[in-house]
Structure formats: structure tokens, C-alpha cells
Write a structure and sequence with these properties.
The protein is of the alpha+beta class. It is built from eleven helices and 27 strands. Strands 14, 15, 16, 17, 18, 19 and 21 form a seven-stranded antiparallel β-sheet that branches. A hairpin with a 2-residue loop joins strand 16 (350-354) and strand 17 (357-358). The protein is globular, with a radius of gyration of 35 Å. It starts with a helix and ends with a strand.
Length: 501
Amino acid sequence: MVSSKKSWLTSLFIALLVVVTSVITTHWTVRRALHMQPPIALAQENQQSHPIIKTSDFQQALRDVSAQTLQGVVRVDAISIKKVAVKNQQSPWDFFFSQDFFNRSEDQGEEREFRSGSLGTGFVVEREKNILYILTNYHVAGEAHEVSVEFVDGRNFTAEILAGDERKDLALLKVDVGSQNNDLLPLPLGDSNSLVVGDWVLAAGSPFGYDFSVTAGIVSALGRTGGPRSNINDFIQTDTSINQGNSGGPLVNMHGEVIGINTWIATQSGGSVGLSFSVPINNAKEALPYLKSGKTPDYGWVGVSVLDIRSVGGESYASSAGFTQTKGAIIATVFKGSPADKAGLYPGDLVLSVNGTPVNNADRLVYLVGSLAVGSKAQFDVIRDGKELTVSVLVEARTKDAGENTQSKSWPGVIAFPITPENRKELHLDNNQTGVIISSSDPGSPLSFLKPRDVVTSINGQKITSIQTFYRAINAPNVNGRYEIIFKRDGSLIEITVRKE
């Protein structure tokens, strides 16, 4: 009995010893771990770091901005009407039973009306008593015959198109909402010049008919040029998801201020891939007074067509043209009688700047010229035949058909490429073949007889060996205005004499 009791006490003592040892070991292990944090963690305590973002505050900001923005956003339904003459369908029995069968004209028929609809977005920019002014894109409603707008709560109104600005892709709608809708207010307009790459932005619209959707993203880049319909905006690029139906909707900052109008996307699939472009709201502010009065702003025009060096061969083109850089815009064609023609801008000139503002590419030049005040004189810094010079051009107003129906007035009216090892092989040209290769020609222009793949070898007896010699011959003083062009087509030499005028 005593022996059994001792055995039990011994077992209990051993168990307690194991527990105490385990606790002590764990305690010292934890203390050691706490005192052996990575050096970076210790260093951060003594460094100034970025503040931790409070997710709850950011979340609430997204909610507040979204809710406020949607109150001023509208779905835009635009209807275009086209009347088309449709020939009457004749029954085969008319030959036997209709007295008018042989008297019918082939053009006889009735005029039918075809209606096509488009969906977009807009937002309220101004209110005067019961009248709302709603801004959207020109390609949404600028050429429509019937327009209606719907607010997020379902209120629907018929809209009147006041005016459109195709060059900046803007259209202003006018809506009478009556005296019972005092809660429909304009969205605050911000300053798009204050944007910085990395700023958070929200986009609202009706993508694919999913009305009043909000997407978020950041400003990816600023001052983007180009875009559809010969736009002259310096677009805001974002990664917000924008799709068909978003056009004309607001792009807002985290204060709920509109800083852009969502306009187009770059995509190969037809859907958003994170390359979205918006018209800066400051551009729209400049146009609004004109649009509100039912007019379209006047934009500058000098009368040239331009190219990017990079689009016509990059360094190989620059070398052949005598340029030491690939930035700038090449004047490919000058329209006869235009401001550029009168001032002395020549085909082949490389435009470096306009009024001191650098020109990096052709789109930038188009934007800068469009922004010039009509009647003002603009200073074009150019490189011509290896020399830098400045040409002063008196800016005229761009007419609606500027650039259209003017190809017959273009000089030289062709785009030429230098001969390179690649295209020499492709066109099966001899190793000693010199000249320039024609890429395209303007119909009706003096050199419209030239076709793609033709190789111009001589102009007025001057051998053409490069882009530089080509433009030197084209621009050379010519008393009688006659140009003897020798070119090779399908291995045969052809000589044609043309007049510039």
C-alpha cells in the first residue's frame, strides 16, 4: 500500500516537472522571437513612412461620390431618321393586268423612313430656372433627330439639341423639367488641369444598357492626342472600365467634381481593356458658351496634311530626309491657296514647335493648330532641307468641309517612302536602284497618276536618291510650273509632265 502511494506521488511529480519545463521553454522562446524581429521592422520605427490608408474612409468616399454623381447623370436615347427612296415591287401579274406597267419609271417608288437608335450618357452642367443643360458626346446625339433623357429615379424628358461640336466631340442638350423637379441639379465642374497621374477617378454611364453603372480607376496618363473623328482634344487616359453606352458620361474626381467626359476606348476586342479616354472638362468649358448660344466654336486651320516620322519608317525615313530626330510632324501636303501655302510652309518640312510649344507627333500638331485663335499669327519652327527656320502663318477658320473636297488642291498630293533593304527585296528592285517609293496619292492632285509601289527616279532632270532630294525637287522654284516626273512601274520607266497649278 505504501509502495503504491510512493509510486503515484513520483508520477505526479514527474508530470508537474514536464509542464513547468514546457511553460518556461515557451516563455523564453516567445521573448527571444520578439527581440529578434527582422532588421527592416526595427528600422521602420525610426523612419518616416507613408501613412496607412484608412479603408473605411476611402470606402465612404467612393459611396458618397457615386451617390452624388448618379443624381446628375442621365441615360441618353438618340434616334436618327433617314429617308430613303424605295423602288416599288412589281408583281409578275402586272404585265398582263396593269395598264400602267409600260408607263412606270425605274426610279418610281415611295420614300420610306428608317429610324436607328443609339445609347449614351450625359450629365447636367447647368440649370436656369426650369431649364437643364446636359452635356454629352457629339457622336451620341449631335446628329440625332429625336433625343430623350432619363434620370436615375426614372424621370424621363424630351431633349432639344442646342448645338454640337464635332471637333471636340461635344453636344449640348436643353431640357425643360417644369417647376416640380427642383431637385434636379448640375454636377460641380472641376479643373482638369489639376489632375496628376495616379489620381483616383470614377466613371458613370450606361455600358451596354446597364444603366447608371459606376466604375473606378486611376489617371494613367495626360495629354493623349488622336482618337476617332479627327478629334482635337488632349485626352485624359484612365483604366476605368468604359464601354459602349458610357460615351458622354462624367469622369469625376474623389471630390465629386466632373473633370472629364468619357469618349472612347482603345481596344481590339470591342470591350474595355483598361485604355479609356476622356475629354478634359476644361476643353468643354471653353466650348460651352458657344454651344449654349446654338453655335459651334471656330477652330484654327492652316491647310496642311501631316504625318508622324515613326509611321513612315522612323529612323530610316529621318535619315533619308536629312533629319537628326524622329520627333515632330512632317508636312506631307500643302493645299494651294491655304494659309500655309501663302506663308511659305513647304511639303517635307518637319514641324518642331508652334508658338514655342513642342510638337512631338502629328496628332499634337493637329491639336495645337485647332487651338489657335482665328486671325492670329502663329510661329512654326521647322527643319527644311537640313536647316532650321521659322515661318509665320496667319491662321484662318476651319470650315466644315476643310480637308474634304480639297485633294485636287493638294501639292504634291503623294506620300513617299525611302528605299530600304526590306522594301527593295519586297519590290524586287535592283541593288543600284535609287529613288523614292510612292505609298499613296490624292485623287485629283497633280501627281494622282502615281500609284502605290511606283518608284520616282527623277524630277525635272534631278536624280532622286532620297526623301530629301525628292522634296528639294518638288519645292524648287519653277517659272513655268511644269514638272517632268520619271518613275518606274512594273520594271518600265515612264515619263509624265504635269503642272502644279
